[in-house]
Specification:
- By secondary structure, the chain is an alpha/beta fold.
- The protein contains twelve helices and 15 strands.
- A seven-stranded mixed beta sheet has the order 1-9-8-5-4-2-3, with helices on both faces. Strands 7-6-13 form a three-stranded antiparallel beta sheet, with no helix packed on it.
- β2, α5 and β3 form a beta-alpha-beta unit.
- The longest helix is centred in the middle third of the chain and has 32 residues.
- The chain is globular, with a radius of gyration of 22 Å.
- The two termini are 14 Å apart.
- The N terminus is likely disordered.
- The chain binds pyridoxal-5'-phosphate (PLP).
Length: 395
């Protein structure tokens, strides 16, 4: 591979030959986890709201500053269940600029997704375009806080109030994000989190629904446990969405490490921003001031015609970026036939999807790694229009 032994790696003091992946899960020291496993083995209570499960729900509610947390085995089942909990049907307005699970959750509920374009600055659902998509069949809006940047919660809420719609936020990127001093998860009817391995807070797989309504919390907990309200009463066609004790125990331990990890992410973002902010042709993600960011991702936006070349050539230097989100959800065969999926209706999302590239971003990156990534990225970008790119040994 070209990236092994390159001069640049040596020059930047990068001693490792490990590839730099777009993300790398944060895990606590293994020895710290062993006592948790011992407890699980002693108790023999493996799932169905065990002690670690209860502890994690309480600690997360406290850490996040929300009323109630219901844990799930993953974020997708949490999304599917959230729609069931609120009995959403008909049509739901959502964004194509997301991970495909956002729309799949609608599909699994027999709901018609209606794609709406995004705001050019935040890449979140554009409220000014939502209203014209509302029909008598519309029952809810499913926005995403993309890259942890809050959606325009005030404008969306106003629309929801006027038209009697529910709002379910896909907050899978927004763990720990605050807006105007309080958790972003406190907006809307329900918010859904993912604790997947690629997320800043991970239980390997995992997720949650967040609510401030005690009655809704009960209903969520029935739905995720086959619909059981008690031993003999099944009140809904529930699902098995339960998080197990191993995941929950890991979550409890992971929480202790979160403040340090966020601090490190912020510092790395600072290095990235300093190196890239004045580079011609590179646009950084807008990060509003009234937001407490979680620094989950580091997307940058470059010229459409260069993006895929840069993505491929960086790989040869051991830098594995991700075109997140490309393709748009509305491009997948299952959804592209929908009237709202037509590219003419979604120009902002289409353009962002062709320009975006997410750079490696995780707390165990060294400052030198980030410098190396930036220098290589800048160099590759500067040469990306040259015909020699087909044979990128020039770097
Ligand atoms: C925006 C978004 N929605 C939904 C999901 C699905 O979550 P999970 O992978 O936990 O099922 C993810 C992440 O994977 C995501 O990034």
């Amino acid at each position: 591979m070209l990236y092994e032994n390159t001069e640049k790696q040596i020059k930047h003091g990068q001693t490792t030959k490990e590839p730099l992946l777009v993300t790398r899960p944060d895990l606590p020291p293994l020895e710290d986890f062993l006592p948790y496993l011992e407890k699980i083995w002693q108790r023999r209570w493996l799932t169905n709201s065990g002690q670690f499960h209860q502890e994690l729900e309480a600690r997360l509610a406290d850490y996040l500053g929300v009323g109630y947390v219901s844990l799930f085995s993953n974020g997708t089942l949490a999304l599917v269940s959230a729609l069931q909990v609120l009995r959403i049907s008909g049509e739901v307005i959502t964004t194509p600029y997301s991970f495909v699970a956002t729309t799949h959750a609608l599909n699994w509920n027999g709901i018609q997704p209606v794609f709406c374009d995004v705001d050019p600055l935040t890449l979140n659902l554009d409220p000014s375009k939502v209203e014209s998509l509302i029909t008598p069949q519309t029952t809810a809006i499913l926005p995403v806080h993309v890259y942890g940047n809050p959606a325009d919660v005030e404008a969306l809420e106003q629309l929801a109030d006027v038209y009697g719609l529910k709002i379910i936020y896909d907050a899978c990127h927004a763990f720990g994000v605050t807006y105007k001093g309080q958790s972003i998860l406190n907006y809307g009817d329900l918010s859904v989190l993912s604790f997947h391995a690629t997320k800043i807070f991970t239980t390997m797989e995992g997720g949650a629904i967040v609510t401030n309504d005690a009655k809704l919390k009960k209903r969520i907990d029935y739905i995720k446990n086959f619909g059981f309200a008690d031993e003999v009463t099944v009140m809904a066609p529930g699902i098995n969405g339960k998080m197990n004790e191993m995941q929950a125990a890991l979550g409890v331990l992971q929480l202790e490490h979160m403040p340090r990890r966020i601090t490190r992410r912020r510092a790395l973002a600072g290095i990235y921003a300093k190196k890239l902010k004045n580079v011609h042709d590179v646009e950084l993600l807008h990060r509003p001031d009234d937001v407490g960011h979680n620094w989950a991702y580091f997307p940058v936006f470059i010229a459409e015609e260069k993006r895929d070349i840069v993505y491929e050539v960086l790989k040869q230097h051991g830098i594995f970026t991700r075109r997140y989100f490309f393709p748009l959800i509305s491009h997948f065969p299952i959804y592209r036939g929908l009237p709202s999926a037509s590219p003419e209706n979604l120009p902002v999302a289409e353009r962002a999807s062709r320009r975006v590239i997410c750079l490696p971003f995780y707390p165990s990156l060294t400052d030198g790694d980030v410098e190396y990534i930036c220098d290589t990225f800048i160099s590759v970008l500067a040469h990306a229009a040259e015909p020699a790119m087909a044979h990128p040994e020039w770097i």
